[in-house]
Amino acid sequence: MTGTAAEAANDAMIREFLAAWERRDTDFIVSCFTDDAVYHNISLEPLVGRPAIRDFVAGHESVPPGWIEIHHQLVSANVVMNERVDQMTLGGREVDMPICGVFEIRDGRIARWTDYYDSAPLPAP
To answer: Whole-model pTM?
Structure first.
């Protein structure tokens, strides 16, 4: 069974979106969201709207770039889900975070993004 052209476009957009995180491309990342988008990193309060999301993303511009490895990515209509590992530097040390991301797409942009993960690998505050 093959997916639709819209599903292929949604798959590609999320892959490009995550690649932009690796290079810390704030403008591209924010351009992928709808104006009323919600980003919910499950351990934090949801961010609502592009300005709040931009502030969050811009806060990562000075963080050393890491990498993102997508193990599995599935698309069904307007939903993209992936299992991935985000490698990042936190508190001066490299951390590998296993994450499950769920993206709801509307008109070719992210309307809702939720990341689920175990916070055990994170450094203590």
So the answer is: 0.91
The reply to whether 124 falls in a domain is: no
Inside any domain, residue 110? yes
**Cβ contact 56:29 at 8 Å:** no
Contact 67, 82 (CB under 8 A): no
The structure tokens listed for 88 are 């990042």
CATH code, 18 = 3.10.450.50
Walking along the chain (125 residues) 10 residues at a time, the average pLDDT comes out as 84 97 95 98 94 95 89 97 92 88 97 91 67
- Please compute, for residue 15, the number of CA atoms within 13 A of its CA located in the half-sphere on the CB side: 12
As beta bridge partners, residue 65 has: none
Residues 6+ apart with CB under 8 A from 96: 85, 86, 87, 121
Structure token digits, residue 57 = 């993303």
Does the residue 65 lie in any domain? yes
